[in-house]
Design a protein that fits this description.
Length: 78
């Protein structure tokens, strides 16, 4: 949970984009994506689909409706 909180804090400072390589004990790499704006969750899902041709799992999604900020933590399927 601490890693997710740290990732989301970094993303809120970075604006739109991707911050990757959150190593987890299960050996998978988790990536954080920030997709604020009018596009909605589809912008995050599009970025994850482009990065993960075999699909992806989502660990966390957060949205601030007041600011339109969205962030998602995902991992590509093997």
């Amino acid at each position: 949970m601490r890693e997710i909180t740290l990732a989301l804090a970094i993303m809120s400072l970075a604006g739109c984009g991707t911050f990757t390589d959150f190593g987890k004990p299960d050996g998978r790499t988790w990536s954080a994506i920030s997709c604020s704006g009018f596009a909605g969750w589809e912008a995050c899902n599009k970025k994850a689909r482009e990065a993960c041709p075999n699909g992806y799992d989502i660990a966390n999604q957060e949205e601030n409706q007041a600011t339109g900020h969205r962030s998602m933590l995902y991992s590509c399927k093997r």
